[in-house]
Amino acid sequence: MEEGKSTVRAVDRALDILLCFTSKTDWAMTEIAEHVGLHKSTVHRMLATLEEKGFIERDRSTDRYHLGMKMWELSANISRSDDQATIWLPEMERLRDQLGETVSIYVRDGSERIRMQAVQSNQPVRRVAPVGARLPLYAGASSKVLIAYSDPLVQESIFGDPAWLYSIDLDLYKQQLEEICQQGYATSFEEREPGAAALSAPIFNRTGKLAAALSVSGPASRLTMQTMRDYAPVMMESAKRMGIMIL
Q1: Are 62 and 92 members of one domain?
Q2: How far is residue 197 from each of residues 93, 220, 221, 225, 227, measured CA to CA in Å?
Q3: What is the edge-to-edge ordering of all strands in the sheet holding 64-67?
Q4: What's the pTM value of the predicted model, to 2 decimals?
Q5: Do residue 25 and residue 115 come from a single domain?
Q6: What is the number of structural domains in the chain?
Q7: How many CB atoms are closer than 10 A to CB 132?
Q8: Which of 46, 65, 110, 124 is most exposed, with the fewest beta carbons within 10 Å of its own?
Q9: Where are any strands of DSSP class E within 1-90?
Q10: pLDDT per residue over 127-186, tens digit each?
Q11: 146, 181 contact by CB (below 8 A)
Q12: What is the strand order of the sheet 186-189 is part of?
């Protein structure tokens, strides 16, 4: 247990050192030690490791440190999800205006789903969907879409995760996932919270791989099962247009 704590503490310290470079481009070792509140010998060891891995470089003439090329390599591969979420906004607003309910985009992160973009309904009674919220995968229409269109190995890892709700009948759930793949959308009615309902459709990239789940949510009094079935073709067409927009 102590070993695990030590490992986390080491990572925290290394990250604190890297975060120094968000405020200025180069630092002396003594400046870093003072800034992060660590002994100089500890900072020296951390800097040596970061330099060896290419994250930090030391100017031998001034004995000052700056970010290394490895940071630039990492930045070149940063996900474009934030840009993508912005690109999808006009289509999401159009869908919101057409259906009158809150529209959200979800992506899977391990055993959770994250709301990466949302457009709130203009209705006085509406579903509030904060961007960045993390929600469990075991409930909700978008969760079912994210699981249904995932690789079977990914599905099994989700079902075996400690965060999965073990009271769910997996045989029935897998049958439901097959139906979702056949019909092209998923619904949920008061699954995660009372009085709420949602309809979700998959967004595929140009290679046919699942990119995200498009969701419309609102009060169950308005989003009845029949209403969601009526909205499904509109949702799927909107998701198709959004797939064409993927960077």
Answers
A1: no
A2: 19, 5, 9, 9, 11
A3: 27-28, 64-67, 56-59
A4: 0.68
A5: no
A6: 2
A7: 9
A8: 124
A9: 27-28, 56-59, 64-67
A10: 666 788 888 999 999 999 999 999 999 999 999 999 898 899 999 999 999 999 999 999
A11: no
A12: 134-136, 112-119, 102-109, 210-219, 196-204, 186-189
Same domain, 62 and 111: no
Residues in the chain: 247
DSSP 3-state of 76: coil
* 96, 98, 214, 233, 243 from 199: Cα distances, Å: 13, 14, 8, 11, 18
Same domain, 28 and 142: no
Report CA dihedral (149, 153, 156, 161) to the nearest 10 degrees.
-100
Q: Are residues 131 and 70 in the same domain?
A: no
List CB contacts of 18: < 8 A, sequence separation 6 or more. Answer: 50, 55, 56, 67
Which residue reads 């709420």 in tokens? Answer: 196
Domain boundary among 55, 75, 95: 75
* Same domain as 153, residue 46: no
Provide the Cα torsion 76, 9, 51, 39; round to 10°: 140
Residues spanned by the domain of 29: 2-75
Residue with tokens 């310290």: 13
Same domain (yes/no): 131, 149: yes
For residue 27, CA distances in Å to 21, 32, 182 come to 8, 6, 58
